[in-house]
């Protein structure tokens, strides 16, 4: 018993004061992914990388908006979204106080992005911001004016129309036999 | 799929008022019974970390008990495997009313990484009503303490649903390239992340770009070699130093015409020398 008292005297009080005082997590702690809506371009890279599908990027019912949605309850804090995001719109923060009472929907974060419609077939296929961002990247990537003009055209087309258009340019619109 | 109909008498004895009444006038410790509904044990380890003297939840009167009949709070972890379905229900029904159910971990809250597996029911709240959710995989002991104290009303809930509905103009996102070609930055960042993972990779990228700009003329292979070598020498962390050299040899040489001698000989540079 006396030995125990000696030991506790030696080490003093080690209990953290938390929650009555703030607690500082250690460096590189992986806390809640913080989402910055203004930076998100709706590229869905995070949705594909996320192993538990905590992030989903989907069109809404009438396809007028691209909905980015994050469910913190399903997140496993692996940091893969942070790793793949091209613009830094989602970064793991140091936030660890995540508990909620009664209503689970408090764990959800969402953002609605305007849809880009295909210039040829008028189907929705992407977010407006993604097209804008891609063009911005290309314009600073040392490509010629002519290519840039072409890119401007192609960026606003859905993958199917893009394919058709490319084939049409190659063949001049005529039916050809490829040998 | 509705799996379990809560018997009427349990439902009537578990209204919100009764639960709040219990929390307010308990006059003794809260007994916590922990149910492992098929968790990977990560959450268990963190629960036991949270009841060590380092965090000491007995300050608030939390006490683990070994029998659901003694419990006020059920702490459920895991995505509820089929095998644990009935044991969970038995524990739930055995707990005296009113009972407070806390779902712990990503698995307990929504099924987490296992949410679409064939053998699980994905989440405690699919089966029994849950009062508090503590996300995390596993939650940090501080998160567990926070979750339990929030459930008691000592702390305020911090998270709220956030929804951005107005798609405004986006700020210009692409910075000018130091080489006049953003593809250089793109390749550099990819390689930096490949070498050192995303957190340190970003730091490595910044360090490299900083050293490159220091050289005065980023397109002159002689000047950049000197400046990167210098940066490597004063770098404390040998990982950053070596990776800066690798980046220079592998990426920079693709964008600027370089001779073999313009590459950095990684074995010759002595780093860490202030
Ligand atoms: S941290 Fe991992 S689990 Fe969480 S949202 Fe990002 S990718 Fe998904
Ligand atoms: S910009 Fe980042 S956060 Fe937005 S969809 Fe792409 S990867 Fe996800
Ligand atoms: S939330 Fe994570 S740590 Fe906890 S049981 Fe599930 S997988 Fe394991």
Please, could you describe this protein's structure?
The complex is a heterodimer of chains A (179) and B (274). The N and C termini of chain A lie far apart (93 Å). Helices cover 31% and strands 19% of the residues of chain A. Chain A has helices at 2-11, 45-49, 80-84, 128-139, 145-155, 159-171; strands spanning 33-35, 55-59, 65-71, 90-92, 100-101, 108-117, 124-127. With 179 residues, chain A is α+β, with helices and mostly antiparallel strands. In chain A, the strands form two sheets. Chain A has a four-stranded antiparallel sheet. Chain A folds into two domains: 15-116, Alpha-Beta Plaits (2-Layer Sandwich), CATH 3.30.70.3270; 118-172, no CATH class. The mean pLDDT of chain A is 87. Chain A has six helices and seven strands, in the order αβαββαββββααα. Helix content of chain B is 43%, strand content 9%. Chain B has a five-stranded parallel sheet with strand order 2-1-3-4-5, with helices on both faces. Chain B is built from nine helices and six strands; from the N terminus they run ααβαββαβαβαβααα. Chain B starts with 7 loop residues before the first helix and ends in a 19-residue tail after the last helix. The model of chain B has no long low-confidence stretch (mean pLDDT 86). Chain B is elongated and about 85 Å long. With 274 residues, chain B is an alpha/beta fold. In chain B, α7 (182-214) packs across α8 (221-234). Chain B has two domains: 8-151, Rossmann fold (3-Layer(aba) Sandwich); 182-271, no CATH class. Classes of the chains: A alpha+beta (179), B alpha/beta (274). Chains A and B meet through β5, β6 and α4 of A and α5, β5, α6, β6 and α7 of B. β6 (108-117) of chain A pairs parallel with β6 (162-164) of chain B. The structure holds iron/sulfur cluster (SF4) (3 copies). The site of one iron/sulfur cluster has 13 residues of chain B, from α3 and α5.
């Amino acid at each position: 018993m006396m030995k125990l008292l000696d030991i506790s005297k030696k080490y003093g009080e080690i209990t953290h004061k938390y929650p009555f005082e703030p607690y500082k997590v250690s460096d590189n702690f992986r806390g809640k992914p913080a989402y910055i809506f203004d930076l998100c371009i709706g590229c869905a890279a995070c949705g594909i990388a996320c192993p538990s599908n905590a992030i989903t990027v989907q069109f809404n019912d009438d396809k007028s908006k691209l909905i980015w949605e994050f469910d913190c309850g399903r997140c496993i804090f692996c940091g893969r979204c942070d790793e793949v995001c091209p613009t830094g719109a989602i970064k793991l923060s140091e936030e660890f106080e995540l508990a909620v009472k009664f209503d689970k929907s408090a764990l959800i974060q969402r953002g609605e992005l305007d849809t880009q419609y295909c210039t040829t077939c008028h189907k929705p296929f992407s977010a407006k911001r993604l097209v804008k961002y891609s063009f911005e990247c290309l314009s600073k990537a040392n490509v010629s004016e002519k290519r840039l003009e072409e890119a401007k055209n192609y960026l606003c087309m859905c993958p199917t129309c893009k394919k058709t258009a490319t084939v049409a340019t190659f063949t001049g619109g005529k039916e050809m036999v490829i040998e | 799929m509705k799996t379990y109909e809560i018997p009427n008498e349990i439902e009537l004895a578990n209204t919100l008022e009764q639960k709040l009444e219990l929390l307010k006038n308990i006059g003794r410790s809260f007994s916590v019974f922990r149910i492992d509904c098929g968790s990977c044990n990560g959450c268990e380890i963190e629960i036991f970390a949270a009841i060590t003297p380092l965090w000491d939840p007995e300050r608030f009167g939390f006490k683990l008990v070994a029998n659901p009949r003694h419990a006020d709070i059920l702490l459920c972890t895991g995505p509820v495997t089929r095998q644990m379905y009935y044991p969970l229900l038995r524990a739930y029904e055995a707990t005296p009313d009113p009972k407070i159910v806390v779902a712990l971990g990503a698995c307990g809250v929504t099924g987490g990484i296992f949410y679409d597996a064939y053998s699980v029911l994905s989440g405690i709240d699919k089966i029994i009503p849950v009062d508090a959710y503590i996300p995390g995989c596993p939650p940090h002991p501080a998160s567990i303490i926070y979750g339990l104290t929030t459930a008691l009303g000592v702390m305020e809930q911090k998270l709220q649903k956030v929804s951005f509905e107005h798609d405004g103009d986006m700020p210009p996102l692409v910075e000018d390239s130091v080489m006049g070609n953003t593809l250089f930055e793109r390749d550099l960042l990819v390689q930096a992340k490949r070498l050192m993972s995303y957190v340190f990779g970003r730091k490595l990228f910044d360090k490299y770009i900083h050293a490159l700009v220091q050289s005065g003329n980023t397109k002159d292979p002689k000047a950049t070699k000197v400046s990167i070598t210098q940066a490597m020498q004063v770098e404390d962390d040998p990982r950053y130093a070596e990776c800066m050299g690798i980046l220079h040899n592998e990426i920079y040489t693709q964008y600027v015409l370089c001779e073999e001698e313009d590459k950095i000989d990684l074995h010759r540079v002595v780093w860490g020398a202030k």
